[in-house]
Every structure is written in structure tokens, then in C-alpha cells.
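Each letter names a residue; the fold follows as C-alpha cells. Both lines appear below:
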Amino acid sequence: MAQDFNVFAIVQGGRLEYEAVLFVASFFHRNPNFTGRLILGEPQPSERWDDDPRIQNPQVRRLLQDLGAEIVPFQNGVFGSRYPNGNKIIGLTALPDNEPFVFFDTDTLFTGRLNTVPFDFDRPTASMKRENTWPEVELYGPGYGEMWKSLYDKFDLDFDSSLDKSQPDEYWKRYLYFNAGWFFYKDPAEFATYFTHYATEIEREAPWQIETQELYPWLDQIALPLVIHKLGGARDTLPSGLLDGEVSWHYRYLPLLYATAPDEAIDVLEKVLAPNPIKKVVKAYEPFRRLVFQGKGHKLREMFDRDNLPRKEMAIRQRIKKANMWYR
């Protein structure tokens, strides 16, 4: 019998609160018989935040709860405004201990049933839908191998067993690297402990091999492979094509969704936002208003051939911006 698990995302004021509506609405549209809990972690105000990070629109809060989400507060006493991505690290403390979880970034659309994904919660992994965003190898500086090995050595982890030896030396895919758009494990408390420790120690005292590298906004994605390796995970402990494919779509920004996603994803998006109780709330968010309800998303979509997209996301963004459709 399949194991129950919790689905988790972060919600906070601004863009994420509106994306959370699409996240929750599409999730229950595609997973009407889900037997776990869908939990949204909400950071609370503190001296770490320049502004109140909580949901700003009370209508959004009510709508999320009406759709079936639980909103659970947590204190991010580590990162706050200086690194909002750290909410996904600290937010795991809002989840019940020893209950399997799957984390998703809020900018995720569900297109299929999550119970078709054969999670092995003892062997964590994360999204392989990534580009070589970190580190940047500099002329005369350390290479990929030396930089990544310095991090494994810092935390007494076995570097050699993390390598994909089917890839050539000093090619970025040889080294364990994920997009932090989704990940899972059997115990959020244990995952959060290592994630917080590795991230904060890299900040506090980075190995000299990476001292010229930018840590932000990549810190979560620098620490994540170390956590997964420590906990016995690896690349591809799931079949490919389910998450980041048939079941979920991590779109990052709504214009990128219209540009790159398959037709089914666009159908789900427009279907779940159409009911009046949802539409009247989310049309306050300009990307939904312009792209979904005013139809500009389909004009944007016509600019791209989904079977022949630019290899780099930056090229897609630039074409959208040139057409004055980069709503975010």
C-alpha cells in the first residue's frame, strides 16, 4: 500500500501568495483523493525581515484555506530578508517530524497525479531540471572538481561516490547538482537540520576554493546536494519524466510557463483559475490578469516553438522582454 506523505510549499506576501493559489488549485484538481496534507509554511515577522513577510491579501488567505491548504506559521530566525530562498530550508521545521514530505517551490503547476510517482522516501533526490548556474569556473582558478570536493571535505562527506563517472572530468554534470524546485525525504526535521547546518557553515566559512564564488541566490542549491548525499540519496532515485513532466511543471515565472509548457499545462492553468471565486481574487496579480484573463499569454505562446526552444532560459526571457510581456 502506498505511503501517505505531506506536500509542502512556502507562502508569503507578494508574488508567492498568488502563485500559491495556482499551486493549491491545480494540486487538488489533479489529486482530488489525496490522503496526505497540503501544508503551506508562512514565515512570521521578526527582526530578520525588513517588512512583514506574511500573506498580505486576506482574500488570498481565505481562498487558500477554502481550496484545502493548511497554512502553518514558522519563524525564520536564520536568513530572513537577506536571503528569502532560505525559507525553504527553515520552513521544513513547520512540518511534523518523522512524516515523509515532498517539497515544491510555489511556482509549480500540477498536471497529473502525485500518487503515480514511486517515491522512495529513504533515498532522497531533487529536481534535475537545472542549468550550470553554480559554480562559475574562472581562468586560472580552481575547477569544478576542486571546488565541489572542498565542500564535501568540509563536511566529511565522500566526494568520489557522488560523481557521475559517465560524464567527463571537469564537465559540470559530473558533479551532483540539483534545482531546488522539489525534493523529498522521510523526515523533515532531519533534512532541515543538515540543510541549515550546511548552508550556514558555507556562509560563515566557505572553503578557500570557492571564496570568489557568488553564494546568492545559489546557497540552497549549493547545500542541497550535500544534504541528499549525506542522507543516502542520489540522482534519479525517481523515474524521469514524472516530476518536471507529466505530474508537475516548475515554471519559475508565468511568462515562461506560457512560452515553454505543453498544451495540457496551459489547459490546467486556465481551467483552475476560471471559477469566479478564484478569478476575482487572483486577477489582482498582474501576470494572471494580463496573461490569463486578458489572453496575452496565448500571443506570447505563439512566439515560441515548444519542439525547438532556445537551449538557455535567458534567451527565452530576452525574447519575452523584447515583446514587453515579461510580467512578474
